[in-house]
Amino acid sequence: MDFDGYSRAVRDADVGFVLTHPETQKWRLERTEFRNTCLQLGCDGGGSIADGISRSDTAILIWRVGSSPEDIYLNGELIGDDDLILLEPGSHFIFASRGPRRWNSVALPVCTFGERVGMSRCGSRAVVLSSPGSAEWLSLLSANIYRAAVSGLPTEELEQALIDGCLEALSASAHCETGRSDCFSKVGTALRALHRQDRLNCRIDELCDELGLRERTLLRAFHRVVGMGPKHYLLLRQLNIIRRALLDPAHSERHVTDVLTDCGVSELGRVAGQYKNLFGELPSKTLRCVRHTHHRGRIRSISDLSLHAASGDSGKL
Fold first, then answer.
1. What is the pLDDT of residues 107-145, one digit of tens each?
2. Cα–Cα distance between 283 and 227 in angstroms, integer?
3. What's the pTM value of the predicted model, to 2 decimals?
4. In 3D, which of 168, 36, 16 has the Cα closest to residue 106?
5. Total structural domains in the chain?
6. Would 114 be classed as within a structural domain?
7. 13 CB contacts (<8 Å, ≥6 apart)?
């Protein structure tokens, strides 16, 4: 699985991904869905920012698997190896990391588990829970449950074991709320403004004027929450938008220059070099690969139609 497939596969939240550092490992996402819950086992292959909102009917329990040389931040707060994260329904979150990391998550429907996990009545919080040993124990439990589910063991028993394990870990945890910091609020507002207007080119001074903030204030907030300044974030965001446009089969017959221009690029050579540094290939190569895959799919479809027609003719004879 590559970064693009990974970002489309993540469930249980409306989330957008921005690749920020070149991948050094394979991206992986394994999932098994039970009657009331969903278990995901993920491996991020490179540094990224995940900005999203959890579903309105689901609480999500997330934890790191193993140790990572790169720090992981949630809404500007450092996440430790023993921390559990509880995203209440409809909570806004921003995860940021500079490198690969492994994680697991369990989606718990609010109608069944809301009071049992101690969620607030107002909801919409991102809560970090300190629970020494729980992340490691839950990782082992989740891996065993996933393998058992894949092998075909009864899902009801496996789901109950998963639920019991999550509730036990939550009940033994001390928690502190995150996501209400002033820096997170400013960055969240800025990202929503960018997404809402789908801006391809945006000047920092214009964004600050719109938000009523000084540039230095926004710079400090971005560094705290996503580990970089807003100018660098906007560049990476544009490179990710370019990649999604190049991977769109509808653009397979277009010239790479036209695609980049539509994405707001004026300095083609400079941006092409930055794109290669992040994704490991030039934009032209990405488009050629998409074009080759698209043509191969068309040839296969024509071949299938021809075989079907020949089969139909022979049947008439």
1. 988 876 655 655 554 457 888 888 888 999 999 999 999
2. 26
3. 0.85
4. 36
5. 2
6. yes
7. 52, 53, 54, 55, 60, 87, 93
